[in-house]
């Protein structure tokens, strides 16, 4: 394959920052989202949802509702069962320590017999208008005998706790482990000191700006089903829904994910509403449209995080990390969402080495069912949880050892010459330089000038703190064979189809999906750079299973590293064919043809053919090597990565705490990330900004809180605090790159690094601000009330002295 890792910036090519192509339509209100699609004769679906967290469905009386104006049909779990419709499947299987497979209870499209969380759908009402459907849904008489609920992991694992699923004893889905327990025990036996921490990774609600929506359409004449949906991965939805839920063969099921207004993970999963509208459309023989409302999305979109972890780090006298022992409880919610089991296990515990040479690591994860919304991947998916734990623990270790926070990190960094580096928890990192990102970030953030700024704040009665995190994450998922061995039920390669048109413009069909990441720009840059055609002449198509050969979609910051590599491979095939055509036209040997800057040249001569001439010849093959080649210039490539990519870096945050109110104000945030080769610096900066904003949201503001009965208390934007402009600062972003060694671009992912690296930097800064109060840990979110209570409960050394 092409070696694309050598820097050569051309206009609209790799390394340039052309404005985002997609923004023309987004900023002028011409985006075309699922809810903008209206099919002729469509009816509207509204779901009646359980308002109790746990209960037996005694009866659903639809008699009166059916007679209401505009009602087309009403379906319940019984109808779904009678139709032989399966439940939505889980895409990842984990085995417990004892080798037994995880408990995998059915997740019916509409609840059958029992409801298990507030939001569980018990009936679907279809009517001529949304309002009529809402009225009829309200008029349904749903009798549920409430059962005691478990709304958090402590309640769910208490002796005699009510069971969410009868076959999940103790509400445990699996009890998994990784690492070498004996080696860790031996490390602790020789420890000079042990640092300990308990952390809660607070539960989050994703809240993409566009709520989910789905339209089912059925063509009786052809027997073809179409689902328009707000998905990050339409082919995956087609596979899961077609094969496991509705038994529709792929050639009769088209899934379209048009413009999607943000996903952040929450739109990866196959949701019951998608299957419900697709099935119902064929039943009522009309298109059926459902659009989620914001309050409904709070209780139906998969939530994120919700881990409780205890960790211990064994330290040598010189501060070397000897061994790490970790125990996590992960909340799965009421049902297994599509990728839920992978999050606390292979996406999380495998990163426990971080950027450090810890030789022995052992981690246990208990995954727990509760009567809450299912929990699954949310921007970072497992890596923010581990990074928060690790980077907090390293700060605690520094305190335990009486060492400087930077010095203890440096003492334990994996040195650049140790790469490729095999961790004790399965992953082999390919490249990185942690000292370089640390130094650059400390310079940009003026780490060394901090104490003077702290003294200045103190004069104003404010507590100033600075914190860092030196993180590493694994993304670009994934080598299919590795993912399969770890429990994934799908391959995780990517697909690109490059169609060169007769006059030399190009359409690229990619199996990834852009919902904010700017692929229409960066992927056009890749093709333009490689083929030497103007950037404006490359069009990107994604999100429609009828147009694109196949694809695994966008998540795990994989689109560039995996999807982009498939593009490089497909363009390489175009160039190889172009060389044969050029050799024929110029009566030269193929081996003598060189391709550069959009020109095929006979080496050592001034004979050349422009790319456009070759394209035209491929489609008007009057003078053509017919014996050897087919006409046309259209190539497809599948790319299965050899490894994950491992972005890393350093994030530094500076805060000021008002001791009178507990309010934490952000003063400065600096991120220096190693993401390998950068395709579009502007888009990369935007991705880091967005991720950091979400990380700050987790650290300071956001928390999905359930009461004991399983009601979501922070269930609206009035109660659940998303970060706003005035909660943020201008974020300084730098990149300091080592190349990925195993993909042709040298690129690592960037989509999640901001959300992974930032939360511990913020909390480390808050803890530092409170250093005179003897505070060693603050759980997220560090709200004013929490900080005020800590300050008022402690007696500051500062005040006493
Ligand atoms: N890029 C680049 N150079 C690199 C790496 C990436 O120029 N070295 C560019 C890519 O070409 C792409 C963008 O940066 O345009 C992000 O690329 P990548 O890291 O491959 O991530 P994905 O495109 O696969 O996006 C997924 C990632 C994830 S997992 C979440 S969650 C997320 C995110 O991206 N959700 C987002 N960013 C988001 N941004 C927006 N606006 N909305 C979301 O829902």
Provide key terms for this protein.
801 residues, Aldehyde Oxidoreductase, domain 3, Aldehyde Oxidoreductase, domain 4, 4 domains, 7-stranded mixed β-sheet, 5-stranded mixed β-sheet, binds pterin cytosine dinucleotide
Outline of this structure?
The chain has 801 residues and is of the alpha+beta class. The protein has 21 helices and 28 strands.
Give the helix tally.
21
Per the CATH scheme, the topology name of the largest domain is Aldehyde Oxidoreductase, domain 3
| Number of extended strands | 28
Query: What hetero molecules are bound to the protein chains?
Result: pterin cytosine dinucleotide
Count of domains: 4
Largest sheet, described in full?
7 strands, mixed
Q: What is the molecular shape?
A: globular
* Share in β-strands: 15-25%
Uncertain spans, ≥5 residues at pLDDT below 50?
none
Radius of gyration: 28 Å
CATH class of the largest domain: Alpha Beta
- The CATH homology group name of the largest domain: Aldehyde oxidase/xanthine dehydrogenase, a/b hammerhead
Mean pLDDT: 96
| Helical fraction | 25-40%
The N- to C-terminal Cα distance equals 67 Å
| CATH architectural grouping of the largest domain | Alpha-Beta Complex
Topology (elements, then pairings):
Layout: H1 23-27, E1 43-49, E2 55-61, H2 63-66, E3 71-76, H3 77-82, E4 114-115, E5 121-127, H4 130-139, E6 141-146, H5 153-156, E7 172-179, H6 181-189, E8 193-201, E9 213-219, E10 224-229, H7 234-245, E11 253-256, H8 272-284, E12 288-291, H9 294-298, E13 307-315, E14 321-333, E15 360-369, H10 383-401, H11 405-412, E16 421-422, E17 428-429, H12 434-445, H13 450-459, E18 463-472, H14 480-485, E19 494-500, E20 506-510, H15 519-531, E21 538-541, H16 559-585, E22 593-596, E23 599-602, E24 608-610, H17 611-619, E25 634-639, E26 648-657, E27 664-674, H18 681-701, E28 731-735, H19 753-769, H20 784-793, H21 797-800
Parallel strand pairs: 1-12, 10-11, 14-15, 20-21, 27-28
Antiparallel strand pairs: 1-5, 2-4, 2-6, 3-5, 7-15, 8-13, 9-10, 9-12, 13-14, 16-17, 18-26, 19-20, 19-25, 22-23, 23-24, 26-27
Helix pairs in contact: 10-11, 10-19, 15-16, 18-19
Bound molecules: pterin cytosine dinucleotide.
């Amino acid at each position: 394959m092409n070696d694309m890792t050598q820097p050569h910036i051309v206009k609209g090519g790799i390394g340039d920052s052309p404005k985002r192509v997609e923004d023309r339509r987004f900023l002028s209100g011409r985006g075309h989202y699922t809810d903008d699609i209206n099919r002729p004769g469509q009816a509207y679906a509204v779901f009646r949802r359980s308002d109790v967290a746990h209960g037996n469905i005694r009866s659903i009386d639809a008699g009166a509702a059916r007679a209401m104006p505009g009602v087309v049909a009403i379906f319940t779990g019984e109808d779904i069962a009678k139709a032989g419709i399966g439940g939505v499947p889980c895409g990842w299987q984990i085995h417990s320590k004892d080798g037994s497979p995880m408990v995998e209870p059915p997740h019916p499209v509409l609840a059958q017999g029992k409801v298990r969380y507030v939001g569980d759908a018990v009936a679907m009402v279809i009517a001529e208008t949304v309002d009529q459907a809402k009225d009829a849904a309200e008029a349904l008489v749903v009798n549920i005998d409430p059962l005691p609920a478990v709304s958090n992991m402590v309640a769910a694992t208490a002796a005699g706790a009510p069971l969410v699923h009868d076959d999940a004893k103790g509400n445990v889905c699996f009890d998994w482990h990784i690492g070498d327990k004996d080696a860790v025990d031996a490390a602790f036996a020789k420890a000079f000191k042990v640092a300990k921490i308990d952390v809660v990774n607070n539960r989050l609600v994703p809240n993409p700006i566009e709520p989910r929506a789905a339209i089912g359409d059925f063509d009786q004449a052809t027997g073809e089903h179409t689902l328009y949906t707000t998905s990050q991965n339409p082919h995956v939805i087609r596979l899961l829904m077609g094969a496991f839920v509705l038994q529709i063969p792929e050639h009769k099921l088209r899934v379209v994910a048009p413009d999607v207004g943000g996903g952040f993970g929450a739109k990866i999963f196959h949701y019951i509403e998608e299957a419900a509208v697709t099935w119902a459309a064929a039943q009522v023989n009309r298109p059926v449209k459902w659009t989620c409302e914001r309050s409904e999305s709070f209780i139906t979109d998969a939530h994120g995080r919700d881990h409780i972890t205890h960790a211990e780090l064994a330290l040598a006298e010189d501060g070397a990390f000897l061994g790490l022992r970790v125990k996590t409880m992960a909340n799965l919610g009421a049902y297994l969402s599509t990728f839920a089991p992978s999050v606390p296990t292979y996406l999380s515990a495998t990163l426990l080495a971080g950027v450090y040479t810890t030789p022995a690591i052992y981690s246990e994860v208990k995954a727990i069912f509760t009567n809450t919304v299912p929990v699954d991947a949310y921007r970072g998916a497992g890596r923010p949880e581990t990074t928060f734990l690790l980077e907090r623990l390293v700060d605690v270790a520094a305190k335990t050892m009486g060492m400087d926070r930077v010095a203890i990190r440096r003492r334990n960094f994996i040195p650049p010459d140790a790469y490729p580096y095999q961790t004790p928890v399965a992953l082999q990192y390919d490249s990185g330089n942690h000292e370089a990102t640390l130094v650059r970030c400390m310079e940009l953030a003026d780490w060394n000038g901090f104490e003077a700024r702290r003294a200045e704040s103190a004069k104003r009665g404010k507590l100033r703190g600075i914190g860092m995190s030196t993180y590493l994450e694994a993304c670009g998922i994934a080598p299919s064979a590795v993912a399969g061995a770890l429990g994934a039920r799908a391959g995780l390669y990517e697909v690109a189809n490059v169609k060169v048109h007769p006059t030399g413009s190009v359409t690229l069909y990619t199996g990834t999906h852009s919902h904010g990441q700017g692929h229409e720009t960066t992927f056009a840059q890749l093709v333009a750079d490689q083929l030497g055609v103007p950037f404006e002449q490359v069009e990107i198509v994604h999100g429609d299973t009828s147009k694109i050969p196949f694809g695994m979609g966008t998540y795990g910051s994989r689109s560039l590293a995996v999807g982009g590599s498939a593009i490089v491979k497909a363009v390489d095939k175009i160039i190889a064919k172009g060389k044969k055509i050029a050799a024929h036209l110029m009566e030269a040997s193929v081996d003598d043809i060189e391709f550069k800057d959009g020109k095929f040249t006979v080496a050592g001569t001034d004979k050349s053919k422009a790319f456009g001439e070759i394209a035209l010849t491929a489609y008007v093959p009057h003078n053509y090597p017919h014996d050897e080649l087919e006409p046309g210039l259209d190539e497809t490539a599948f790319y299965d990565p050899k490894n994950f990519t491992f972005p890393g870096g350093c994030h530094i945050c500076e805060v000021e705490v008002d001791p009178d109110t507990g309010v934490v104000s952000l003063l400065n945030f600096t991120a220096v990330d190693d993401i390998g080769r950068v395709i579009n610096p502007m888009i990369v900066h935007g991705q880091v900004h967005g991720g950091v904003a979400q990380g700050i949201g987790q650290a300071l503001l956001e928390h999905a809180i359930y009461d004991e009965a399983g009601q979501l208390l922070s269930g609206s934007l009035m109660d659940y605090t998303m970060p706003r402009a005035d909660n943020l600062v201008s974020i300084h972003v730098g990149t300091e790159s080592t190349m990925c060694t195993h993909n042709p671009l040298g690129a690592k992912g960037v989509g999640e690094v901001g959300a992974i690296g930032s939360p511990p930097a913020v909390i480390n800064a808050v803890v530092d601000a409170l250093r005179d109060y003897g505070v060693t840990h603050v759980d997220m979110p560090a709200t004013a009330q929490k900080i005020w209570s800590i300050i008022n409960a402690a007696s500051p050394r500062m005040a006493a002295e």
